[in-house]
Design goal:
10 helices, single chain, 14 strands, globular, 388 residues
Length: 388
């Protein structure tokens, strides 16, 4: 399946409005589930942020937050936007609700940080990206892997041509999320969460998009169910690029051989090889290659602890704070575009997700046709035997 190509506009700062260092970004938070609570905790710890409102559909959650944190709580998003009047909104609700909530915030002229993926439809994501650009608003999506130091080092080395021309990228993610047949949650329903593809595979796919750009097409896509009744639990696909580069995606969220989610990338180039995960980056450079500063021919190993800059508040991992700091800093500086993980790049990732769905459906229909043909042949079996 071919994929529409869309570029990402650079961040632009409004020189007529220098940052007001005494001002604080007024932030509203929509959705306080697992990720929303994490974002809320980090946001309240940032020195230049005032959380002016929290919205959720569950009353007892709001009651507890109001009682023990003192934040203003709302059961209606529109009421929070009108009464609290935030400068920016953080959206951490089920993916199926993103399009309407993000659109409403943009219509109110508010900057938006939205959990990934942006939406479940590539055309909706492109529309939101255009609306944010037209209004000059900072619009960022929570692909936190781009803020993990080892994955950032992969990007730096590729941009520096450290391993020559890349020929193949392998991006993987495995973990024990869905391990038995049970009642579905919003994540495992296609219309609300999108299953493994949108909720899990989106992470390594976004990394590939960051490293190599949007592929011209995808082939051999497979969306398999293991335990889920409504959507996929494992995802496999091959990306094709015009310069001969290929990338393969291998993702399974029903793999209990892993204790927790594990994302990794391997890039094979003409002059070396890079492997990276959350903990370390391993780089092999062939003899005769001019190594980047800090590297040498042969194997090199660097750990996330030595590559990760300090953040103002630690929760779950430096990358979660780093991404919110990047968002808030861009808003604070009156910039008109996210510094990283913009709606443009998220829409490009969503276009790949959409292409994988269409390719998998096409592959499934083709396979069904082949099975039907095979069944027809079996009705009049060919007789095999020795010649006398």
């Amino acid at each position: 399946m071919t994929i529409p190509q869309h570029g990402e506009a650079p961040g632009v700062q409004d020189a007529s409005r220098p940052p007001d260092r005494d001002a604080r970004v007024r932030l509203g938070v929509v959705g306080v589930g697992k990720m929303g609570l994490s974002h809320l905790s980090i946001a309240r710890a940032l020195h230049d942020v005032d959380v002016v409102g929290v919205c959720d559909s569950t009353d007892y959650v709001l009651d507890v937050l109001g009682k023990y944190t003192g934040v203003h709580t709302f059961g209606s998003v529109e009421r929070m936007l009108d009464e609290a009047q935030p400068d920016a909104v953080l959206i951490a609700t089920p993916t199926g609700s993103h399009a309407d909530l993000v659109g409403s915030a943009l219509d109110h002229g508010m900057h938006v940080f939205c959990e990934k993926p942006l939406t479940l439809r590539a055309d909706e994501s492109r529309d939101l990206a255009q609306r944010a650009a037209d209004r000059g608003l900072v619009a960022q999506v929570g692909y936190h892997n781009r803020f993990i130091a080892t994955f950032r080092e992969v990007k730096r080395l590729l941009d520096a041509d450290a391993i020559g021309r890349p020929g193949h990228i392998l991006a993987e993610a495995y973990g024990p999320v869905v391990l038995k047949q049970k009642g579905s949650t919003w994540r495992s329903r296609r219309e609300t969460g999108g299953g493994c593809l949108y909720d899990y595979a989106a992470h390594p796919i976004d990394l590939v998009n960051w490293y190599a750009g949007t592929p011209e097409g995808v082939r051999g896509s497979v969306l398999h169910r293991i335990f889920s009744a409504e959507t996929d639990d494992e995802v496999y696909s091959t990306f094709l690029y015009g310069d001969g580069l290929t990338a393969h995606i291998s993702v399974n969220w029903s793999d209990d051989s892993y204790r927790k989610m594990s994302t990794s990338v391997t890039v094979s180039g003409s002059r070396g090889r890079i492997y990276a995960d959350r903990q370390e980056i391993r780089v092999y450079l062939r003899d005769g290659v001019e190594p980047p500063t800090g590297y040498h021919p042969g194997w090199n190993v660097r750990y996330t602890t030595e590559l990760t800059p300090a953040v103002s508040f630690y929760l779950r991992g430096e990358e979660y704070t780093a991404q919110l700091e990047s968002f808030v800093d861009a808003v604070h500086a009156h910039e008109h575009h996210a510094r990283q993980n913009s709606f443009d790049s998220a829409a490009a990732t969503d276009a790949i997700l959409d292409a994988i769905v269409r390719d998998a459906e096409h592959s499934s229909e083709t396979a069904a046709g082949r099975r039907a043909d095979s069944e027809g042949h079996r009705r009049t079996p060919r007789r095999w035997g020795r010649r006398g």
